[in-house]
Amino acid sequence: MKHFLNTQDWIRADLDALLADAARFKRDRIGDALKGRAIALVFFNPSMRTRTSFELGAFQLGGHAVVLQPGKDAWPIEFDLGAVMDGDTEEHIAEVARVLSRYVDLIGVRAFPKFVDWSADREDRVLKGFAKYSTVPVINMETITHPCQELAHALALQEHFGTPDLRGRKYVLTWTYHPKALNTAVANSALTIATRLGMDVTLLCPTPEYVLDERYMGWARQNVAESGGSFAVSHDIDAAYAGADVVYAKSWGALPYFGDWEKEKPVRDRYRHFIVDEAKMARTNDAVFSHCLPLRRNVKATDAVMDSPACIAIEEAENRLHVQKAVMAALVAQPSGMGSRE
Amino acid sequence: MKHFLNTQDWIRADLDALLADAARFKRDRIGDALKGRAIALVFFNPSMRTRTSFELGAFQLGGHAVVLQPGKDAWPIEFDLGAVMDGDTEEHIAEVARVLSRYVDLIGVRAFPKFVDWSADREDRVLKGFAKYSTVPVINMETITHPCQELAHALALQEHFGTPDLRGRKYVLTWTYHPKALNTAVANSALTIATRLGMDVTLLCPTPEYVLDERYMGWARQNVAESGGSFAVSHDIDAAYAGADVVYAKSWGALPYFGDWEKEKPVRDRYRHFIVDEAKMARTNDAVFSHCLPLRRNVKATDAVMDSPACIAIEEAENRLHVQKAVMAALVAQPSGMGSRE
Amino acid sequence: MKHFLNTQDWIRADLDALLADAARFKRDRIGDALKGRAIALVFFNPSMRTRTSFELGAFQLGGHAVVLQPGKDAWPIEFDLGAVMDGDTEEHIAEVARVLSRYVDLIGVRAFPKFVDWSADREDRVLKGFAKYSTVPVINMETITHPCQELAHALALQEHFGTPDLRGRKYVLTWTYHPKALNTAVANSALTIATRLGMDVTLLCPTPEYVLDERYMGWARQNVAESGGSFAVSHDIDAAYAGADVVYAKSWGALPYFGDWEKEKPVRDRYRHFIVDEAKMARTNDAVFSHCLPLRRNVKATDAVMDSPACIAIEEAENRLHVQKAVMAALVAQPSGMGSRE
């Protein structure tokens, strides 16, 4: 059985099929691919877009989404195998996943890092716990990666450029300032999908400390080797923006300071000028701009950029609805010909 | 595109059509006017009746409601244009409204005043922010007015009197005691719809300090001029109840004390006797009694009044379901012949 | 009009019919018995399984569930008749139940004890308040009993033994340790349904202080008299497990310490060895094991027991979905031939 935990687990043909399905679901919103089916949306962290788009996606295809928030309006869950559960946790993931699997056809999981110890967070054990014990397909609704956002982003770029083939486009993933140290998930994901689709990718960030985890840097290099694009790291704003076709912005916390964010603060505060503004965009090849949202205006990008025709963040957000319908429909159908890279 | 922000924005013929539609939706509960459609219910404040009635109204017409609670299980939202968002807010209303507009066909908004500064609260900027940026119709689910309650109230009165024509009825909107200073929204709305429908309206309140904001007093006078009823303020309980056909109760905070509620407390505490009781009801012309709910029994109205046949508060609450179906269906259909007063 | 407050209120033939309907609903998941119908799920306490199973049950039969959490995202409710409501409560159950009855076809209520005063909690007044004022059927979603769990448990046993006739089976309800004093609801319910179905029931608990409330002990004796089984209390682990066909585990707080839980703690701490483990299970007649979930692994039962083929807790949890569909469908249909014992 196939889950949707990371695009990197999927073969390229199946990813392309998801994107093509999503484009069809966008044209023809209502269908019956999930008729009588249900998905549990398990949120360990808050959400607006993800919850709305999954809930409506299920509805538009005849299904139903149940929203669960463990530790908020449901029980706190244990993830350690063999634990003597005499502390705070009330129920083991083994039971949670098995019972949910009896009720629903799909399980979506959002579980952000705890932001204390990256070596623990990078194990992604909440998502993996669900995948291990669930007997139905599991969908990553953002943990340490965000593959649904990847597909929405990719579809928005395909729409913008009028072709599914994005090879040769100059793609800049730029770090931006944000008052808090954020999750690297969308940055990891942007790197993953941009290299997968064969673009010429630059990771622009203030210093080597802001480079992403080696797992995702490795995926990027592997993807470049397979898809024929390129991948480089830059700390030079002018050089990175020059001639860019795509500017994708995201803020994240520097991994060497993980869990020690007060120490990162003075470092981070020096790089407020990474904001995406008109002057930087003027250096590009009339680049398209996007962001996964939510976005702090005039901190990550200026009002002028956000309200310009170059901004496709709203399109990308809308695409979440349609790519997730494609993912849910594909996982429920599970054609025998669908292969996994694992 | 037409929103449903206030009844005062709508021409009388369209309000009458909504009420007639609502009566039909009450007889024939199930339909397909919202088949495959969705509404986002954005609650900045808690709700039971509003949420249940909108959620079920959407369901009964084949649609789906998504419930969002910004700052609770979604992101805190910025409403100021041009703000440098380096504080608590995570996302600007421009993005929230535009993205929601891609997901849903309608947006309902509940945003009570903050109860600190009436000159700020009276701008209704959350509702107006959604209306400004949304590309789909927006419905007021109670902000500083409560137009859905107005329609439910009007329908309940039409049912009680057996006719849509309420002209000439003596209508008393009475302030009542409540331990806390409450929103003026329903009082503003009762005044608005009662005068709009041509009734002879008395606003009964303890002192001139409890008179409503001049905007709504002005709407009442304007409505009287157009619909041929009358409007007066009274501080005399006996005179106001004498011969009344309708008694509508509501508590609210006095605007001169807005944000300074500790100072209002001793004033308010002197008027506990404004409670609606059998003695007062006996002075009326066998009046019908109602309230928007929730109602504190034996504080705003006695058990005897609440449990009497004169009380139509339950009918009014039920009507919320049906008038909201009428509003949603009308906004989604948006017939070209539908005119706005603005 | 018939509610589903306790199985003990229902005649045996109707309970058997519910179980048979549930088995059919399990085979044929999708239907239209609730087409266009709605249920309000009123949760005064958190829930995962109950909420998910009711919500999906309604969906699978064409209906819709509205989830309400009074005091959390809805108003705090008053249950005392005649109260002068100038304290914390905003609305009386009379209005809540009557208004909900206009919106929905069924009302489910979860209201755990407050754990301060058992003589108050045992009155079950939240559930009874809804049943009193509602004009639609009310379903107990766990208060001081848990009748939906009873049906799910009974169905799982019928499936395991391959027959609806459970008479003559040796059934052990064993108390287990848990760091907190828990509700007696599921224990009361297990005792009720096991004796009702004619099994030979042993209530195994550490001391006479852990015996259940006399109301439920009385129901057990009454059921035995009518159904021909037996009922005994034991404090001897070895004797109780010997030859058992069914082991059902649950932890609960000792009633003599109710509200004074710090005093119970040293007592409770002496009985950690009541955990269900392989050694105890080896003494049984190859017994089936179950629990209502959530379960703390290695505290109430060991990993080895939970992961053994003897454990049918997941089946029992799944059955919640199907028995609740049966209950909802039966209550909405309310055939005139359906009798109540009251």
The second-level CATH architecture of the largest domain in chain A is 3-Layer(aba) Sandwich
> What is the topology, as strand order, of the major beta sheet of chain A?
9-8-7-10-11
Instruction: Summarize model confidence as the mean pLDDT of chain A.
Output: 95
Helix share bin of chain A: 40-55%
- Note the main sheet of chain A: 5 strands, parallel
Which chains make the largest contact?
A-B, 32 and 31 residues
Number of strands of chain A: 11
Order of helices and strands of chain A: HEHEEEHEHHEHEHEHEHEHHEHH
Number of domains of chain A: 2
Assigned CATH superfamily of the largest domain in chain A? Aspartate/ornithine carbamoyltransferase
Low-confidence stretches of chain A: 336-342
Using the CA coordinates, give the radius of gyration of chain A.
Answer: 20 Å
Q: Class of the largest domain in chain A in CATH?
A: Alpha Beta
CATH topology (level 3) name of the largest domain in chain A? Rossmann fold
Which band does the percent of strand residues of chain A land in? 5-15%
* Overall body shape of chain A: globular
